[in-house]
Amino acid sequence: MRSEPFVELVAVEKRWRRPLRPDGVALAGLSLEVAPGERVLLAGPNGAGKSTLLAVVAGLVRPDAGLVRVGGLAPASYARARGVGWLADGAPFPPELTVRETLVRLALLDGLSGRALRRRVGAALDRVGLAERRAERAGSLSRGLRQRLGVAALLLRPRALLLLDEPLAGLDPAWRVELRSILDELCRSDPSRALLLASHELGEAARMVRRVAVVAGGRTVDDLPADADPRELEQRVLAAIRGGSTRHRGSGDRAGGEEAA
Amino acid sequence: MNGLARLLPRLVRDRARRTLAAGVLLLLAMAPALRAGRSAYSEGWVDGSGGAASAASLLALLLVVAAPWIGEGIVSRPRRDGFGALAACRPVPRSGLALAGWVAAGLAVAALAVGVAAAVNGAWRGIGPPLSLPGAALAAALLWAWAGSAVLLLSALLDRGEAPLAAAAVLLPALLATGPSSGGPVVETLALVPTRPALRAARAVLAGAPAGTADLLPPLVGATLLLVLGLALAARRGAGR
After folding, report:
1. What pLDDT does A259 receive?
2. Chain A positions in Cβ-Cβ contact with residue B77 (cut-off 8 Å)
3. pLDDT tens-place string over residues A225-247
């Protein structure tokens, strides 16, 4: 018997209003289900709607139409009740705060305090190799180091749902492997933990997941197992994108909403 | 909410630099008036209480200008730098970070008012009655409630530049309404903006007198409306999308 989906999106639509220009369509009737404990990669071209989809699931963006449920709740209600692990594209952080201060503030919002807070912050800094840089300002970090800071923020109090937007961007090869190991540990420590990540690095990202949902033109156009041969997987994703794009052009929609976001 | 309460001292500390700079600027702005009052008193033209009243008026007016600058970015800054989205994904109310920022900036403005009032009292020693220090904190709280709620609302609407807009929005109507009464319906409408009663109440408490209910109610009602609207908008837009 199939388990209840943890994340459920049905015919979700989102348009970005742009002054003096036609609306940008980010999501055009997208549907997707993610079961508890499932790890899903969102693959697709720029402007396909991947970042918007993650933001909708996090409750940061309200869709214009369609149904979105996370753990049976509206996404914002779920985030408020249980919290969501969120790593935004580019891992933006307040530039004037130090690495440690950034984590301390997030840990406070996670409900940690006192010794537990210090221990978790210290452990997270150690795990992502930023302990030596704890006094540096986030604004002075390279993109790869900011990504590691973002991963440290996920480790403070790991949530049942992790949403990662381009987590591999800027990471060197050693830290790409390390990120995979960290995500494996997180998912092993709680088998019901679901992971949804968007990435253009198909080969590396596919090794972190079980499923690849191909998104193009604001819709899921294919759903593939991630354990296929990497070359074959790449071909199938490209074929799905081409097919999806053809259908997309035929429907008269416009992509590009992701940039508008 | 506990996490937000624990975050509060850090949010106050974030505004320390602006608060100190505002303190220096306020004292510089008040220095000529204090000097003039001191020399007029020594020549027997005014008594000390008149000088203290004019210092209270000037301080209240300057606080209305400084407060929006200190509180700038309550919602817009976390939205720009990504902290708003990170906070929104944690189990705290969506408008909680904005409310904590509003309270933190209010505490910073209160500290500024008490510090400047203490400095004025030092300069004014021996001439007339001092400004009330608890009154300075109360005056700052009242002026912040009004001007700070305008900043919060504008910060939820705009990405930048809310401080000058908020200062203009709360001060210009009050200044225009002091002009000739033949200003027509526009000026009469602007006169409804409750900055003048807020300034009167602030002056009174700075001088150590109780503020009248008629002066307290309009700014407090206006502040509550703006705050509720601002927090609702912050909950929708504070996460950055």
Report:
1. 38
2. 94
3. 888 888 888 888 888 888 765 55
Chain B closest-CA separation from residue A27 CA (Å): 15
User: What distance in Å separates residue A31's CA from the closest CA in chain B?
Assistant: 21
Domain that holds residue B191: 2-237
Angle at A83 between CA A191 and CA B96, to 5 degrees: 170
Given B7, B81, B88, which is nearest A108 (Cβ)?
B7
Give A2's contacts (C-beta < 8 A, 6+ positions apart).
A35
CA B195/CA B209 separation, integer angstroms: 19
- Of the candidates B7, B81, B91, which has its C-beta nearest A93's C-beta? B81
Residue B90 has its nearest CB partner, among A55, A109, A261, at A109
Q: What is the pLDDT of residues B58-103, one digit of tens each?
A: 899 999 999 999 999 999 999 999 999 999 999 999 899 999 999 9
Q: Dihedrals φ, ψ of A157, to 5°? A: -145, 90
A-B Cβ pairs (cutoff 8 Å, strict):
80
- Of the ranges A29-33, A244-248, B43-47, B129-133, which one carries the lowest mean pLDDT score? A244-248
- Condensed to tens digits (0 to 9), the pLDDT of residues B91-123 reads 999 899 999 999 999 999 999 999 999 998 888
Average pLDDT over chain A, rounded to whole? Answer: 89
Hey, what domains does chain A have and what are their CATH numbers? Answer: 7-84+161-260 (3.40.50.300), 94-158 (no CATH)
Number of structural domains, chain B? 1
What's the DSSP call for residue B131? P
Kindly determine whether residue B7 and residue A109, on different chains, have CB atoms separated by under 8 Å: yes
